[in-house]
Amino acid sequence: MRDNQAAISAVQQAMSEQGMSAEALGNRARVSPNTIRNFLEGRSWPRIANLGAMEEALGWPAGRIEDIALGLAAAPDDPAPAPTDQAPAWKPMEISYGGVTVTVRVDADAEFTDEEAAELLPEVFQLTMRKVRSRRERDE
Fold first, then answer.
1. Contact between residue 50 and residue 62 where contact means Cβ atoms under 8 Å apart
2. Is residue 7 packed enough to be buried (19+ CB in 10 Å), middle (13-18) or exposed (0-12)?
């Protein structure tokens, strides 16, 4: 079961420990402070790119916020979640394209051939580049 509040609480705790306001986290992550505030108040869930930027700004590994919400990881300094017989909702998958290999998360039930997986990477790359360009334009 998803628990967004657990993830929100973990982020709030990390911000408090680092003496960071929503504005400071937003500046460090290069994410709108409104996005941070909306997340912290439970009004909206950030896009994946923004979650990743927030995690990096907090010094967390990529995917930690989502993992906490899904119960797949404990918040820092929390006891580990109790073992479960339930399979994880996702699995890592390596995709190679143009000499670049990335590991992405896919639905645990998803089954892709190597060729199908390779078709995904250019789309992920293009989406990421659009977001990078957009961020750069916004920051200019």
1. no
2. buried
4-70 in CATH: which number? Answer: 1.10.260.40
**Domain ranges (residues) in the chain:** 4-70, 90-139
The pair of three-digit structure tokens given for residue 85, joined into one six-digit string: 């017989």
Span 10-33, pLDDT tens digits: 999 999 999 999 999 999 999 999
Q: Report the alpha-carbon distance of residue 83 to residue 95 in Å, rounded.
A: 29
Sign of CA dihedral 108, 110, 111, 114: negative
Query: What beta strand segments (E) does 42-126 contain?
Result: 90-97, 100-107
pTM of the model: 0.57
